[in-house]
Protein 1
Amino acid sequence: MLKITNLHASVEGKEILKGINLEIKAGEVHAIMGPNGSGKSTLASVLAGREEYETTKGEVNYMGKDLLELAAEDRAREGVFLAFQYPIEIPGVSTTNFLKTAINQIREYRGEEQLDAVTFLSRMKEKMKLVEIDQSLLSRSLNEGFSGGEKKRNEIFQMAMLEPKLAILDETDSGLDIDALKIVANGVNKLKTKDNATIVVTHYQRLLDYIVPDFVHVLYKGRIVKSGTKDLALELEAKGYDWIKEEVKETV
Amino acid sequence: MSSDNQILEEFTSKEYEHGWTVDLESDQAPKGLNEDTVRFISHKKNEPDWLLQWRLKAFRHWQKMEEPNWANVNYPAIDYQDIIYYSAPKPKKELSSLDEVDPELLATFEKLGISLDEQKRLSGVAVDAVIDSVSVATTFKDTLGKLGVIFCSFSEAVKEHPELIREYLGSVVPMTDNYFAALNSAVFSDGSFCYIPKGVRCPMELSTYFRINAANTGQFERTLIIAEEGSYVSYLEGCTAPMRDENQLHAAVVEIYVKGSAEVKYSTVQNWYPGNKEGVGGIYNFVTKRAICAGDHAKISWTQVETGSSITWKYPSCILKGDYSIGEFYSVAVTNNMQQADTGTKMIHIGKHTRSRIVSKGVSVGRSQNSYRGQVKITKKADGARNFSQCDSLLMGSQCGAHTFPYIDVENKSAQVEHEATTSKIGEDQIFYCTQRGIDEESAVALIVNGYCKEVLNQLPMEFAVEAQKLLALTLEGSVG
């Protein structure tokens, strides 16, 4: 589904990603871990098409397409979804209205008919249960005055509504208490199929107790320095990141 | 079919009635402005002598006045002798199908979501759709007539209800009020008149949209609304279709007289031609709008969405004379390219326990300049008066300007006056959040701006609000990148 080859990216002239290689197949869950400042969020942003990030080298092939050539909205329309680490507030625009606009633009891009109000609402109702989100929250201005937990749940709700092929969760666990974390993880798990893939970007192992990854990659100084199974995450939890830093030093 | 024919006949005879098919040449005043021009207009309209004298008085006063220059707008000096002050509306060339209509205009209609029938009517295509809208207008008049509501053109009111016009004309905006109001008083061409009898709640939104000929009332429009005690009316001005008017100067006057416990809601969506990207052409919209809450517990609410005109100079105001009367002003003003807007309101608190609320949302794009100018005056006798003002500015890009000029004048110690102002920019991160969900940049900007204006748009009647939203999106087109 996704093949990243030797990806380099910089922001404001500073190189953050220094040659990422990663392959993700449909049905897989990949966790990307690493210490602060290692480039995890940058990788998520670059894949989603944030303009401030300049890709200087490398390729990203997504379902046979050159992902880097696509505008951010077209990536979304092709099925790439980013759950933001810090969801943005849009005053005066409800989640409902926001999603209706998004879904209809995506459908138009795919040559499908606009979703009628009834279908839209019944889909909303169904997905609301999934992340245990309340209707009243969806009628309020998007993310404005939401608690940290509400914002993250809202992200997963949007993901449920948009049914992406490739979902990237950027530190979705940050700022969540254990109950909210379970709800969010539960939502993500239910959305998992054999046809979609998930990238979970996280600093801590905690989330991975609930969203069990098929592969774990450690990102450090803009490179993936170690890959393994979920046991790697446990090892990191037990030992911290220092041993990885040491290993990297030795090999350099 | 026979009723259709009848309607059709009514429609066509209406045009004759207004003399639009007589020789064009004689239906136009010579260029320039002097007492003869004023006489010409009054004569053309068969006005009674008192009205001619009223016009002449206004004209003589206007001659002694100077054009105001305090507004934060720049434009070349207007040569008032180079304007034709009266020109009967050009008979529309009848088109046989939409194929003959300017494709650009059609594209705009499409974006506004105006129905096909309405498109035909607006572009002057002679088909069944026209008949439909005439019948709508007729049914409309019947319903209103039964309640005693008068809703007609200003000229018609001068003929049919001279006593009302004589009593109220100039009672809220005196002919000497300001330069443009005096000019309008001298040469106004036509406009709308509305009267709601005591205790009547007008059952429908009164819209100039439904009134035939409304689009052709000319550049010096005059509107007078009278709400008797305990009555209610919601009045919609203008239609949201783009009006390709060639007249450069528009100086309209709107007067609203609200008696005790009556309420008037006046909504405007203004979309005059704004000029091209370089600022060539476009309307100068210099409007005087004022309402008086003459009796206790009266209420007036202004809502305006201003997206057009190259220059806007407009301050819908409220004189809160009755005790416990309420004035409200909700405004969205969007300027793009080279547009300039200096708009706001005046809240004059005279009665005790009067309340006013101002919510102004400015959006500046391109190289435009957008100013809010508002006055809150609490006079000595206005015990317990309260005002709340909120003036927000949203900027897009780095070449536009947003300005706020609040004037607060309090003469009574018991008054409570609050003023809040914010200035913000649409953030890259907001746009990225939208594009990441599959929304293109232009729609993202429209969505964000609509959200920002929501508090004001919510004040508009439903169908109007929907069109206003689309209009905002249209105005913002090309503002990204």
Note: Chain A touches chain B at residues 48-52, 71-73, 75-77, 81-82, 84, 87-93, 97-99, 101-103, 105-106, 109, 141, 158, 162 (CB under 8 Å).
Protein 2
Amino acid sequence: MADLVTHLATALLWKAATRRPHLTSFALGVVLPDLVGRAPVSALQSLHRHGVSAPDRLVEGIAALHLPVGFLPVTLALALFFEERQRAVVWMNLLGGCCLHLALDLTQRHVGKGYMLLFPFTDWDFELGWIGSEATVPYAPILLPIALGCWAWRRPRAEVDQAAGSAGSSGSAG
Amino acid sequence: MSASSAVAGLLTDGRRGWVWLGCVLFAGALVFAHGERVSRREAELVDCAANPGRCPGRKAFLALVEVVSVDATGFVVLKQTNALRIDGVVPDLRPGETISVIAAVQPGGLGLLSVERHPWRGLKRSLGLVGLGLTGLVMALGLRLRGGRLVERG
């Protein structure tokens, strides 16, 4: 996984490029795979170091929520916490954010493994291997303010009104 | 038909509880299935390391594992919750460091073939916490609560 700051920056850049509203749900979507698929594993490993062990299957299994098929139930469950008229567009933005997250992660290189994109149908894994797993870290502090600036410059002017007006009818993740 | 209308049935207040329960069950099934598959492979690796005669020469790829101890002839890494000993010396290796290892099963256990060090890992974790804080800020600014439901401002 790339670092969360870089993931957030890509969300801002995407919204700046497309000039579409719903930054909040898109940004939440872009960090969601790491929040549900990585952070619990780190927490369980920390507990393990302090003598509290969770079953291996649970620790290994949580990573399924960082895969495309895992995005579906997580984002849908989260979207259901929103008002009914906003749910569809929020769900699409959450899913879009998750896909952008995965797209950035796929550029990385890990020793001997990739992402099981077609799980549970096959164990085949894939990644592009263009950059190391920490390659984004030195650039994140520069990228974030640039992304914020781009988003502030390109942000839709009537964002709040637009969101209220189109919430029930738009399903685009853009 | 737009994407939103295609899934409209799933998103109504009337079915909210059932859909939510379905999501939890589906996610649970995925976690279980993934855990079964991956932990089976992990168990094979742990078994190979403990009984090298069963799978001589087999390669083990250990990505982003934490070093838990180092001695004169090798080191121990934590792969999820399994501690694996690797024979081979890596200069200046310290417990707590994150590394990626390619090892091979040999008569004494796992022998080091190559190692990749990840000196930026700690900073990446710190950036993760910063990202978490920023996400919280974006949520606080972009969401509000109305009638027990979240509403996105824009």
Note: Residues 166-173 of chain A have pLDDT under 50 and may be disordered.
